[in-house]
Structures are given as structure tokens and as C-alpha cells.
Amino acid sequence: MINLNEAAFKRVKEMIDRSDEIGVSEAKASCGATIVDAGINSKGSYEAGRLFAEACMGGLGSVSFAVDSAIAVPSVTVEVANPPMACLASQYAGWALKGENFYALGSGPARSLYGNEPLYATLGYKETSSVAVLAIESSKFPPDSLLESVAACCRVDISNLYVLIAPTNSLAGSIQIVSRVVETALHKLFELGYDVSKVLHGFGTCPVPPLPKDFMTAMGWTNDAVLYGGKVWITLHDEVSVDSLVEKLPSSSSSDYGLPFLDLFKRYNYDFYQVDPMLFSPAVVTVNNVAYGGFFTVGRENADILKREWFR
Predict the structure, then answer these.
(1) Which of 87, 195, 228, 273 could form a disulfide with 183 if both were Cys (CB 3.0 to 4.6 A apart)?
(2) Residue 10: its pLDDT value, please?
């Protein structure tokens, strides 16, 4: 039986056990929660980013590294078993975490313990576990009061709450973000009203951008890595043709496609919610419907945008 938090905890435990080797640090918050810093006061590493991303997927996905052939930068290769659970019930950043001078979106399998997002009713899934694993993209640590609230929402003892944290402009943070490339395709399918239980397998690749100094640039570059360089293969079984739906999956189907994300963000006066939500998806999507056989590919890479941004 699937238990996303227990599987994720195995990755967290490995990060703690290998902390010196992979450049992370473990800290106990005064409230008793454990924080694993992979990039705020720690340098992190590719291995830290890999384990971070795999924990986010509740142990149902694996991450490895290669070189992106179009722009000659490192890339992630993401293989996902049970994409609805790995990507939506676990990896998706759907929990708004608000505390004293703190705001971030929480991802990881702790969300499935709280289960307050509408998608859990659609997925028909809610988890119970004695341990909770939460992932946060932030440059500062959450306050104790927020950690206590998270533990209460997850119905776990505060000593069994484990929080992975890394800023966007850190190596581990960047890796765990672009490792969401399959998740972006699954979430778009979900938002288009598709029954994601029909999705059997997921596979994706995405370039890892260079590290800029500031958060805002890092946010733009990681988004662009997926929008203009991400490639995803989805295997599903559906007795009804999905060809018309597949046309809507790549980022190029959005009216906001074509600009670097930071330029688009400025156009909308830095209001994230003004950006077309259908933009957030991979550059290229291939769907293999095994009920029919064969595959259908839509979208296109745009390496020129990434080269102009990243190469100085």
C-alpha cells in the first residue's frame, strides 16, 4: 500500500545521514520539528537536489542527471511511477503557508495528510502517517508557530515533522524545481478536467539553469527551463481519443507563450495571478495512449530564449 510520507522519509533520512557528504545541514527547531537546510546556510549539491526532488514525489519518482543536448547545460531526467499520486498528491506546491513575516507554498507528501485541497477529493486519496514530510522553497526558515500549525493539520507529533527547505537561487532548490517537469504536465491535464487516474507512467527531461545571485532571476530562469526546455512523455490508457486535449498541453498553446518569464511578469506588474495559468507546462509533450497504440507529440523547444538568458 502506498504511503507517500513514509517513502519520502527514507530520502530525508538519507539526506541527514549523508549531510556532510552532500552539503546539507540538519537543525532542530525550538518547537521540536526537524529542518533539513539544502541551500540557505548550506551549499547543497546535485545529490541533495536529487534526494530533495525524490522526497517531494513521495518516493514514487527517481531523478538522474545528463546534459541537455540543445544548450549544453546539466539536465534532470525524471521517471515517475503512479504520476497522479507522485505528482499531484505529493509533489505539487498547493499548500499556502502563512506565518509571522513568512509566506511560501508547501509541497511534498505532508499535503496528503492535511488533505484540504480540492484535488484530493477528485483523486479520492487522503493519507495517515506518523511522520510528515513537507518541502518549502524559501530563503528563510519558517517560524515555530507555523511549524506547530503544520504538525497539527497533519495530525502528527511535532517531533515527527520534517521540513526540507532550499531557496530558488540554490543548486538543490533549482534542481527540485525543474524536477517538477512531469508534474506540470499532470497538473495541466488535471486543470483541463481530464481523469488523471488514466495516466500510467511519466517521464521527463529539463535543463538545469545556471545559478543567478537573486531570487527573482532564479524564479524566472527555472520557469523558463520548463516552459522552453522541458520535455515530457506520458503513457495513459483511455478508450476515448485524447488528441484534441493533447494539443492544449504544451506551453506554446498559451497566449502568454514567447517571452522570458521575468519579462512577462513585469508586463503584468509582478502579479503572478495575471499570467495565463495554462502557460505553466512543458515545452514538448508526447502522449502514448496504449488503448490505441502509437504516440502524438505537440509543442516545441525554444533553446534560443534560454541561451539568450543564461549565456553571458
Answers:
(1) 87
(2) 98
